Amino acid sequence: MRMSTDPDRDEALARETIEAALAAGVTVFDTAHAYARGESDLGHNERLLAHTLRACKAEMTARVVTKGGMTRPAAAWIPDGRAKTILADCEASLDALDGLPIDMYLIHAPDPRTPWGTSVRALGRLLDQGLIQHAGVSNINRRQLDEAIELVPITAVEVALGPHDDRALRGGIVERCEELGIAVIAHAPLGGPRRAGQLGRRKVVLAEVAGTLAATTAEVALAWLLALSPVVIPIPGARRPETARSAARAARLILDPGARDVLGRALGVTPASRSERPARSERGDVVVVMGIPGAGKTRVAEDYVARGYVRLNRDERGGALRALADMLDHELSSGGRQIVLDNTYLTRAARSYVIDVADRHGAPVRCVWLETPLAQAQVNLVERMLDQFGKLPNPDELRGLARRHPGVLAPTSQMRTFRELEPPSTDEGFASVETIAFVRTPEESATTRGVFVVAGALERPGWEHALDQGDRNAPHLVFDWSPDGTTDVLDPGVAKLERLLDGHVEGALCPHPGGPPTCWCRPPLPGLPLAFARAHDLDPARSTLIGTGAAHRNLAAALGARYVSV
Asked: What is the CA radius of gyration of the chain?
């Protein structure tokens, strides 16, 4: 990759490196259409590879793995998983490779703006059209892999894997690929350029084994990956001829069982499958309460605490999520038997540390999954901020509060957790998984009704009739979003209502810019109606929302309000 992405790239050195790899017996070459300095340079790495392979007369023996679905605006890395982009990128790769066939074509990364199934089906069409020989996916989790397998014959998965990153092991990706005979292409197996040089210092055992084999720590790390599973293929990012030759030597390095065992314990190996897990006693009860931020985990955990459970929560205890597994180890070692951990635990990899510790103590682990819809979790987060701060923080305030207050998030951060969520399963090692559907508790303190009016609705015919569907004596809110605007833009709408109604009328505007939302007040997020309801002691579930489209209907549903369309 860096042969083409580095500002100071050296094409002559890059060609020498590819030639050295070929001479050392390397036959698989990983590239991508996006490996370039930016949008105007797309395909550079593919052209460089194709030119060198032809010059070495290796075009018939070398196998090319390339990727599409990634854009490079202003040198950034932005996934684009639209079907038309996947097709266009593949055609552009074929042009850049100048006639060399694409042995394996991968979706570079999931695009959060495009349904994953849409991207994968587009990949399948490339197979059907004969543009590629095999299909794969890259930078995905176990859930996304399982979804892809249902749609397209997946031959390979490319993920980060190595001594510095074992998420693919802990997250069950390697295990699933072993079951199905899918190749695991391990990118950044040495941790990338910044961490590769730290292998000997950070993983002392690598240096010790390397010394006994007259090899480098990098070669031992690659040999360990190769011995880890027959489906794993490490692809170190060689940029110099000697690095390419070293990688080829690693493929011939034989680790005896003792060395593999020592390295496995020191570097981390995939958690045992369910059939290999040790027997568990029934004396202990470790409960993992998981869900996206705003799902309601605290309430459930407090119920367990009231029954005598010890609570391990990162917001209370501080530190990293992984550190809670060490705290669990301490509690179980000290004789603790009833422990509840309530955290997001979005991924199988994150949950695996808890399961591993409990396994060592023979304690069963139950999972309680709060399957709260994103829209309801958004309402919960806004209500929490109104409780804590008495108002909706603006974007600058929100960024500062998020650093100091656990549980305070920007909308995009919460949306990201929803996308990353991997539903729990007993095949991870849970004794059981209990799914709890979200039910909002009725608000007892607020009984007054309100009416929330989208400003655009007041420009449509029939808006006066819509008012009759609400309570004309109730407080009314006119709300809208106008980037860099002021509440003056709402004055005409407020005046219309004041002429017809006896109750209080006010306007509320989100003035923040477009793009991914940086505030909670931008409709159809629930901030403005909830802040108005809090200020006037209103119950949103007894209120009415007057709007103009599906987004407003969904907002009303999240609030529990009755919806009236104009």
From this structure: 28
